[in-house]
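Hi P.,

Sorry for the delay on this. The queue was packed all week, but I finally got your sequence through. Input first:
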Amino acid sequence: MARPHSRARHFRNSPPLLTGLLGLATLFAGFVYWPAGIGGSAELHYNLFLLSVFAVMAISDLVLFQTWRQPEAGVTLAPTRPDGAVWTRIAVKLVGLGALLLGAATLYATVPLYLSPWYQRFTLQVFDNAVPIALGLAAYVVLADRLLTEPHDQLHAFGTWVCSLGTTGDPQKIGDFLRASAVKFFFLPLMYCYGLDDWIFFREASGDFQSFTAFYEYAYRYLFFVDVCFAIIGYAVATRLLGAHVRWAERGVKGWLVCLICYAPFWQVIGREYLAYDDDIVWGSLLKAHPLAYQLWGSMILLLLCLYVLSTVSFGIRFSNVTYRGTVHRGPYALLRHPAYVSKNLTMWLIQLPFLAVSPLDALGNTLALIGINTIYFLRARTEEANCSGAREYRLYKRYMRRHGPVARMLVPLRRGGGARPGRFVES
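Then the structure:
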């Protein structure tokens, strides 16, 4: 018979919620008190801003919660004395790192998308600082190798494959390593450029809220700015020494497709040509003449976006699309399995009101288009669950939420026999 156990025992590899909240507090404080009038480019200031947020969360994970002790981190403070085999293994890893960096440089230097001025705000920084970046990553590889209980990791498998010219190496480890790297190379420049745009905007904005409309527009953009900042940190830092490494990336084509089509440059085509649901009739224009309803409706949108942002904050330094980096079960994820998707899709309906249009045919088209977008996010949720279900922790979380989560509790009266009673996580 299965025995009940506490959450702490089952979720020993989860990101601490307090780490994300400390990062959020640092972000707010740094944003408000960031010194004005000092020299340096917007990119430099934004980089330092992100570094300060990351530093606080890293210290929290490293010192306060000691996430390096988590079982999946596999870190030891008593490494063996290095010998010839150890240095050979490290050399193989450095070869793999060099091949990876060369591939990234080739991608950013040749693909037309990354040659555009918008993306070059990120890529030129990478090229200008290529040497210190490479040396820093090499130093990390050496340090991590000495502190890992199992140093024959994905990077070693990839380095072995490169050194053997593709004849040897663990195929699954190599695939996971390349997929995780692809996630980083695609999303990091995209998120960084979005965040930099917002940073420049807010540094120049007055922040003078003389009307609810001004407050709403400022808060709406600021909430997405917070979300993007945490995303950038998550993509940039995936260190095993903090237990924040990528265990594996999505291994199915379907999961990649339903995720990537939601982002530039793919969404510009899909959203404009196939799933355009917007017109001139939006909540603001409809309710402008009714101040109370206008403020309540706008506040409801902002509250849903707060839930969306807190979902990202709950990951701390571990946020990433199409990857598994530990099971998040606190914060909004204690209420819903997919709080970010639920809140984001609800805001789409509240903002656009697609069923209101200049003609019934337009209303039908807009409504069906938005339902199509909701379907994409539903598929994202399903494929992400399938991907994360490779981890026993996530399977336990999913089972618990289905049986005893807030939604399950609300449905108890509808179940025959009164349904299941709230309980604790149990062994599978």
